[in-house]
Amino acid sequence: MAVPFSAPMRLMVLPVLALAACAPAPVTDSVIRAAAAPAPVSAIERNVWWGAFNDPKLNALVATGLRQNLTVREAVERIAEAGAYTGVTAGSGLTLGAGSTRLRTDDLPIVKTPAAALEGTWLIDIFGTTGLNRQAAVARRDRAYFGADAARLALAAEIATTYIDLRYAQEVRALTRRSLQSRQQSLDLISSQFDMGAATRLDVLRARQLVAASEARQPALEVAFDRAVNRLATLTLQPAGLLQAQLQRGGPQPKARFVSSKGVPAEALRARPDVQVAERDFAEKMALVGVAQRDMLPSISLLGSVTARPGGGEGWSFGPRLNLPLFTGGANRANLTAAQSRARQSWLVWQQTVLEAVEETRNALSAYQRDSRNIAAQQNLVSLSQETIGLARSSYQLGETDFLSILDTEVNLQDAREALADAERQRAINYVRLSVATAGSVLPR
User: The whole model's pTM is what?
Assistant: First the structure.
């Protein structure tokens, strides 16, 4: 049976119903649209260390990935989740309720008593508990910010490394094709010599063996290229076919314009997102220690209520309430001890994170500094191998050496060229590692 509201009751209830009607219901489409929104720009994106490669295609891939990558979007959503609690005031509340009671005593008529009540509580923050809770919430929000920066930095590094591997696979494939042409020419030469009786069957077989080895390498290099394209498509949320068409034509191996002798700024370590995350986590744990300490102290709450009844009658009550945490079974003391332990754990984690950051930076800088010497040595080896093969062919034409010398020098030249390409790849990857270790503080010089 529906219970009719009196005029005073309707005045109290209708605003509540109106607010409920105006409140938007959760709509799946709006949630999906919010999740699909591009990630906002951060300090990691403004400090474009990958610009040292001066490669427009790499720049475009990283920019697209930072906007569209799903992992980055998820990290940004954690910022919104953590930020939602920074404005919450603990210990306060306001509730509005309405109801009706039906009462019958003996043979008397049924009495209906509708009423609406407005109740509120407010905790007087004598010892700063609310402020400490807010500090902890802000620290959690800031930790989410730096967590998103860590995701962006890792994404940019993976895109750059994958792109470097892709260009390396293309370079080695081009070198293999070039070597295949040279080996095919040598095979044609020795085959004609064999037909004239001037060469042995072993010479022909060795030449064919080298040609077959070059042909056998092609599929593996094509697979490496396809895998890199597919990985870039996943990281940047783009069609693999589109990227393959854009990158198929090839390009030079990425080379960073950075002089390692300039060193790394000291503030680079603190700028690392993982160090910042550990720092904010420690700040949160320390704030929660303060909250646990204040939970052991007395607190005062203000309580009040206003009740509206039929006929315009109203009742109200207001007064303080003292809370003394005397009989909690040691729960408050246990909570404080646990909070202090969590703070000490967070402090140790922060120290370990800084030490690992120093180690990672030193290793990356040391490796990058030695890459130039390695590349210079590999370039010298290629030059010597080219000169050697020229002399071997001249000696063979003069009858001073056998054909196997030419084949050996061709193998050595191909190995030297691939080693040089791998050295260029390793230097580029070490620059990426150095940039990640310093949170992008290493910029082109």
Answer: 0.75
